[in-house]
Amino acid sequence: MSAAARVGASPTIGGLLRWGESELGGGDSPRLDAELLLAGARGCSRAALFRDRDEAPAADVTDLYLRWIAERARGVPVAYLVGRREFWSLDLEVTAATLIPRPETELLVERALELVGDRAGFRVADLGTGSGAIALAIASERPEVSVVATDVCEGALAVAVRNAARLGIGNVSFRRSRWFGSLSGEIFDLVVSNPPYVRAGDPHLREGDPRFEPETALVGGADGLEAIREIVAEAYSHLAPGGSLAVEHGHDQGAGVRGLMIAAGYRDVLTFRDLADRERATSGRRPHGDG
Predict the structure, then answer these.
(1) What are phi and psi of 273, to 5 degrees?
(2) Following DSSP, what letter does each residue of the chain receive, concatenated?
(3) pLDDT one-digit tens code per residue, 207-237
(4) How confident is the model at residue 121, as a pLDDT?
(5) Which CATH number fits domain 95-285: 3.40.50.1820, 3.30.70.120, 3.40.50.150, 2.40.50.1000?
(6) Into which CATH architecture does domain 3-74 fall?
(7) Which stretches of the chain score pLDDT less than 70?
(8) What pLDDT is recorded for position 2?
(9) Where are the domains positioned within the chain?
(10) Which one of 38, 121, 139, 148 is least enclosed by Cβ atoms within 10 Å?
């Protein structure tokens, strides 16, 4: 029996949600996923679903929702289906060319904002910007700073540019570049990055959302530190004296990242824990009077 036949003729919003939850029963959050997908198909908020739960949505909305439920049942991330994910209260477009922004990355934004403080004229570089999540979050909170965001993937960069335009954030510029490749000779007060840091062959790559995300944005070589090692080494010469580097990393990589930064000459090297009390981001400072 087809999905359309199982939900019946002119199903209500409430009925569609119950059906979707049943179809996704094996997932981590079937009810939430069903709500997000129906709200996305209908172009409304989740709150509106409950307000209108006894209404029958338009046939094209129902058809789209049924297709999305089928895709979600085989594991496709909700964010890729609806094309949106909220990050730092920003409604961001995401596509299969970008990583899906995750709540733990907001810790990196918090640390970056602490480092920027209230100083005007700060220059910030966000390496591997993806959807632009980190760069746009910083720029939205600190409109007096200038942010340069880079990504080697043309598709991801296009998404970030569209997000900036739609959100009306004008203090970010975008460049296609692998890390510092297009930033030769440029100096920044802060460099931030959420680079690939998953170890090659990690079993988590075969589970959940990572199965559908771009591998190049996830995998950081055999030990997961390949990209971080390169960024730590190159960032030093792109930082103003007293400038800082802050990177996100895996929960078990804090000691390794601290070691890389200390060996490269960074001072005040600190690691910060996420809400699950796991080491998630590390920052270091280029000393004053150096260069």
Answers:
(1) -100, 145
(2) --HHHHH-SS--HHHHHHHHHHHTTTSS-HHHHHHHHHHHHHTS-HHHHHHTTTSPPPHHHHHHHHHHHHHHHTT--HHHHHTEEEETTEEEE--TTSPPP-GGGHHHHHHHHHHHTT-TT-EEEEES-TTTHHHHHHHHH-TTSEEEEEES-HHHHHHHHHHHHHHT--SEEEEE-STTTT-TT--EEEEEE----BPTT-GGGGSSGGGTS-GGGTB-STTS-HHHHHHHHHHGGGEEEEEEEEEE--TT-HHHHHHHHHHTT-EEEEEEE-TTS-EEEEEEEPPTT--
(3) 889 999 999 999 999 999 999 999 999 999 9
(4) 85
(5) 3.40.50.150
(6) Orthogonal Bundle (1.10)
(7) 1-9, 27, 291
(8) 47
(9) 3-74, 95-285
(10) 121
The per-residue pLDDT for 224 is 94
Tokens of 277: 């009390």
